[in-house]
Amino acid sequence: MPGCEQGLAMVVFGLTVVRHGETRYNKEKILQGQGVNEPLSETGFSQASAAGIYLSNTRFTHVFSSDLLRAKQTTDSILAKSQFCKDISVNYDARLRERKYGVAEGKPLSNLKAMAKGAGEQCPSYTPPGGETLDEVNARCKDFFEYLCQLISQERCLEKQSSPSTEGTDTEIEGRSATSLTSYGCRMEFHSESDRADKGMDANVLVVSHGAYMRNWIGYFISNLECTLPNTVTKTELSSVSPNTGISQFIIKFEMRKMFRPQIHCICLNRGDHLMGLTHENV
């Protein structure tokens, strides 16, 4: 928006990314990709409910989900536990779908590994016939993230233009300023157990997606956008697929004129401690 950049130097938003809950195919180690639209299992619903309880105090301003059934059901279960977001609209986006595995979909993961070995390659870089390459998945990740940054910056500009009296109410965040979203009644915050709580943000976004897609998205953050990570994260964790309903959280900051060179700080990666209370008896 012309002229908005001069009045709004910095945009800051929180991003929470959650993998969908378990399906029967997950448990049986069968590839789902995009072609198998399996619902959550009983365990998967319990996992999604546990993630919802963990995130219940978080006031999300935007919710996005893959349009595949397992992600939709996970999103619904998370929002059902929310204190603030039960009635928020969900944006279903095909860019958040799992990686497409072509002829390997609906078949055991071991088949994909055998196909890769036969081609002289290794998973996950191997692309089965009819599947997506990693570059194609990364392009979807990049396209969605840039769209998200544009959306939030445009909304922030509109808010500033319609409420000029809010100028000067900025709160310092790590040396940068960011205004709380007054239209949502209170400041945006992550889960309250962390020191990241109570810090003003322009938006707080929930995204529910899939394991391989999330691994590529996080890889894009790290390799292309130089995302900073917690000191405790290991190389094995970086290359691993998130557990079902694993939670990753980030703070995104960018100057309006440098929207596509954001500063990204990872708060937690593939966190699964909300699942510790689940047992075979209660799932």
Mean pLDDT across the residues is 85
Helix content: 25-40%
Please identify the oligomeric state. single chain
Number of strands: 8
H and E string:
HEHHEHEHHEEEHHEE
Count of helical regions: 8
Question: What would you call the structural class?
Answer: alpha/beta
Instruction: Provide the low-confidence segments as ranges.
Output: 166-189, 191-198
N→C terminal distance: 50 Å
Shape: globular
Strand content: 15-25%
Q: Biggest β-sheet: count, sense, barrel?
A: 6 strands, mixed
* Strand adjacency order, main sheet: 3-2-6-1-7-8
Q: What Rg do the Cα atoms give? A: 19 Å
Compact description:
The chain contains eight helices and eight strands.
Q: What labels would you give this structure?
A:
6-stranded mixed β-sheet; 283 residues; alpha/beta
In terms of topology, how is this protein built?
Layout: H1 4-7, E1 10-19, H2 24-27, H3 42-54, E2 62-65, H4 69-80, E3 90-92, H5 109-118, H6 134-162, E4 171-173, E5 176-178, E6 203-209, H7 211-225, H8 235-239, E7 247-255, E8 263-271
Parallel strand pairs: 1-6, 2-3, 2-6
Antiparallel strand pairs: 1-7, 4-5, 7-8
Helix pairs in contact: 3-4, 6-7
